[in-house]
């Protein structure tokens, strides 16, 4: 590929990012009472910056099934709430202890730890409130399925479980299978939710979901390998955060286990494989294909 | 009142507590992988100890409408997930910095801060997963209403918003109206959810909910005044946690603003008022009445 694919993704991603920022701005007006600081911290964490890859994935998958833009936006907003809350908590001193994120101070540095913990907790609630609201979809069955899928993707059998494994990685030497499982949970579960969500809204039968599941799993792993490569070779200014942290902490990653060259090969292989899973779709899946390419070519 | 009411509440509360422990035990089997520590921390925080007042309130209100015990138990379990997660996060060094809770070490002391943050986050997800599951109620509309109500009660317009006000209370001198608002959010919102949840499941019309709302609001405030009195006069061994902390932190409470005697009077008045709101109900509301009495008479 593909300046073409990169340009397609970037144009759509920046449209999505603007929509997400606008929606957060509308959802989080500052109250004129002592809770003001909490809302300021939620807004600080949620608005501006970020690739908004997850809302983009939701929209790209919703495009396959002619799902309304409003529904896709609200589902994307809910996933982004979970993603942002997890970043706020993961950046805390007790967790990854990061000072910079998305090119600005982390939330606990810009505010304080207590406010950051609460702001993360509130974004966590907001995700489910958004999904459960009838503005997301008229059918309560669809909404309740979305809530279930997101709670699973974010909890101990998903993202948070992966984060726990990541904490344990400092005290253990994980092999490739365990690192793969860790990343399938830590970043893969939420990425898979983005694609599953569209399948839920479209009321797709299980056999129709198989290819999409495969796509999601493959781009999730490719995304993480690319992240590991950026952690070793990337530019911290472009990344907007500290790099080289996994190696310093003695954690095994795809790059430490495979080496840079084989890791890059593996990412390319996963991207090819992810696109093969979309063979049943025509041009309507071109954005999903372009996102797969973009995921391993991005510089942040 | 009422040794009689106290005995009724205690018998029912200990039955509820046993059911809740058993349900958490079944929901949280220990996995044989590096996420084990996370589940251990979730179990440590969730199982054993605690008055289980909120699940008891759910059951007592569900009794009014012949709602199934299974449904009432699962809704109570979800509220308790939120309550426990909030205790785990509130006890963190960056928040209230407590070492003891329910007579044992707080979760971050028994494990570590990172694990405690994640365990709280996972219990937070679990609450919504439980409510959204069809085992809670066959009607998805009811489930989605429960999710919405719990997300609101727990987020920035509810419990977490109250906790933010509580943090700000150290730097400000709140008046009685502001302390009332703080507590209406911090403990009242979740207590109100317990009663609202039964009304949601019973599909009660808004006019039928008015008395129950009044009951919930009054016992919520009475509960907090009793808590403030225990903080001043209680036995830390019975309480299972450190006391006297609000005064040491210079925070205004109902007791600091009203004095012990007037605070006690106000609690008694709220209890009487809460029972008056139940005038439309007969003997089927006796447990709710007994809970109101118990709330101000408890020693922990």
TrEMBL record, chains A, B:
Alphabetical keyword list = Isoprene biosynthesis, Magnesium, Metal-binding, Transferase
InterPro entries referenced in this protein's UniProt entry, alphabetically: Isoprenoid_synthase_dom_sf, Polyprenyl_synt, Polyprenyl_synt_CS, Prenyl_diphosphate_synthase
Q: Which PROSITE patterns match?
A: POLYPRENYL_SYNTHASE_1, POLYPRENYL_SYNTHASE_2
Which molecular function terms from Gene Ontology are attached? Answer: metal ion binding; prenyltransferase activity
Domain of life, source organism: Bacteria
Please give the cofactor(s) recorded in the UniProt entry for this protein. Answer: Mg(2+)
Protein name, as recorded: Farnesyl-diphosphate synthase
Gene3D superfamilies in UniProt: Farnesyl Diphosphate Synthase (1.10.600.10)
**Of which family is this protein a member?**
Belongs to the FPP/GGPP synthase family.
Q: Which GO terms describe its cellular component?
A: cytoplasm
| Species, as recorded | Sphingobium ummariense RL-3
Q: What GO biological process terms are annotated to this protein in UniProt?
A: terpenoid biosynthetic process
Q: Does the keyword Magnesium apply?
A: yes
Upper classification of the organism: Bacteria, Pseudomonadati, Pseudomonadota, Alphaproteobacteria, Sphingomonadales
């Amino acid at each position: 590929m593909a300046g073409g694919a990169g340009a397609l993704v970037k144009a759509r991603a920046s449209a999505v990012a603007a929509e997400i920022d606008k929606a957060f701005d509308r959802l989080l007006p500052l109250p004129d009472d002592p809770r003001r600081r909490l809302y300021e911290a939620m807004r600080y964490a949620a608005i501006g910056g970020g690739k908004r890859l997850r809302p983009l994935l939701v929209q790209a998958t919703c495009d396959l099934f002619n799902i309304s833009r409003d529904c896709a936006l609200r589902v994307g907003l809910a996933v982004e709430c979970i993603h942002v809350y997890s970043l706020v908590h993961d950046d805390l001193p007790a967790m990854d202890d990061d000072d910079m994120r998305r090119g600005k101070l982390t939330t606990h540095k810009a505010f304080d730890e207590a406010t950051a913990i609460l702001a993360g907790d509130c974004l966590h609630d907001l995700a489910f409130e958004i999904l459960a609201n009838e503005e997301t979809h008229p059918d309560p069955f669809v909404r309740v399925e979305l809530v279930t899928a997101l709670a699973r993707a974010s909890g101990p059998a998903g993202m948070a479980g992966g984060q726990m494994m990541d904490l344990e990685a400092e005290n253990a030497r994980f092999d490739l299978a365990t690192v793969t499982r860790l990343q399938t949970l830590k970043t893969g579960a939420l990425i898979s939710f983005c694609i599953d969500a569209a399948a839920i809204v479209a009321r797709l039968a299980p056999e129709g979901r198989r290819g999409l599941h495969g796509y999601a799993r493959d781009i999730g792993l490719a995304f993480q390998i690319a992240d590991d490569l950026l952690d070793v070779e990337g530019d911290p200014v472009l990344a907007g955060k500290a790099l080289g942290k996994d190696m310093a902490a003695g954690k095994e990653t795809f790059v430490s286990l495979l080496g840079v060259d084989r890791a890059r090969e593996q990412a390319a292989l996963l991207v090819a494989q992810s696109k093969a899973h979309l063979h049943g779709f025509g041009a309507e899946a071109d954005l999903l294909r372009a996102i797969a390419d973009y995921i391993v070519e991005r510089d942040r």
